[in-house]
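Troubleshooting log. The previous structure file for this entry was overwritten by mistake, so regenerating from the original sequence record. Sequence copied from the archived sheet and checked twice against the printout by T.R.
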Amino acid sequence: MRHLLFGLIAAMTAMAADTKSAVTFNKDILPILEKNCQSCHRPGEIGPMPLLTYEGTRPWAKSIKSAVVTRKMPPWFADPQYGHFANDRRLSDADVAKISEWVDAGAPEGDAKDKPAPVQWTEGWNIKPDVVIEMPKAYTVPATGVIEYTYFVIPAPFKQDTWVLDGEVRPGNRSVVHHASVHVRPPGSQWLKDAKPGEPYVPPKTPPGEVAKDAQGRPVDVSNEWLLGYVPGVHGEYFDVHHDPVHRAAKLIPAGSDLVFEMHYTPNGKAAAADLTKVGFVLAKQPPEHRLLTVPVANTDFTIPPGDPNYPGHAEAVFDKPVELVYSQPHMHLRGKDMDIRLVYPTGESNTVVSVPHFDFGWQLVYYEDKPISVPKGTRIELSAHWDNSANNRYNPDPTATIHWGDQTFDEMVFAWVGVIADRNDTLDTVMAVRRGNSANSSPKP
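Regenerated output below.
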């Protein structure tokens, strides 16, 4: 009897310990969701269901487990062998194990006193904007058809040079906005010179693989700078990238500039779908020590043959001044397969900044460096990529087509935005003396 009593006590003690240590939503899962998931999974954002509460999360428990175990979520595509990123979204193995254990145990809620304080999200924004600039009137997207890139030139309300620390583009109707970019058009620029302020404008078409040029043979948009954009997976952009006084940087909107909204609309089958996109800025209180420039590295001269499952693309540019690289954003379309971005130094040594072995057009991520990378003068930045134009690519619109550079998703690009910290008075032209793209047939340099 004594042995039976001791055994019963031991079993009850073990059960109590197991109950105390069991994974629950309030104690273990909610902190993971707050840190890694709620930026998308909350009302008004891209996530299909809010994950703010137990009641909202519990019906999706099995789906959440499947998504994190397969590493489908949170979306992150950088090869961990290369680089270290401040915004690395990958869940730790421990977090994945916790979610799996929670779901397998029946997804218990746990004690309310274990809940962390809720994140105070700003409704409608991921930043806290000082200034909001909106398209002056809604644009109506037809139910069907192909819509060329549509531009809206909007005079900026800044009478003096203005420095921007953070920014965010908010589409008015995500169901028809494939992506949106905001550019700075400084005074005197001839880019989109025929566009009327506030009115939708579609520039004249150029032949496949070509870009529009002015009388001097320069691209007509050479004077403008890409400021920020909206694509799936990007919630806001932080121009003071590391919030570090030593590297404090901001983007410049010169006095008297226009903002150009570049809108890529895709019909959703519903008639008269209206969009009213806006952009918000967090302004610097005083001029920063450094300027953040977004450098385009691209190649518009390629021809992808029909059916090719692994066609190579390459682009490169050369830095004419020393800078610090702080982020990069690979970009391709539906046939995009992979991309590597690397720096080749004047010494001949090279450094892979980011490698994306499985490019996903549905998530156009920006990879923020954990620490700025020093880039000496004369360093070459190279993109090496591949496209899959075969029938095995389930996203391929037409494997029988010959593909060139183009704006639409059924065209292609090999392109990256690269953010660099430069001197406050630098411009794209002073930082990048050489911009060129090698044909896709050429081999990348070592």
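Residues 309 and 392 are 8 Å apart (CA to CA). Archived copy saved in two places this time.
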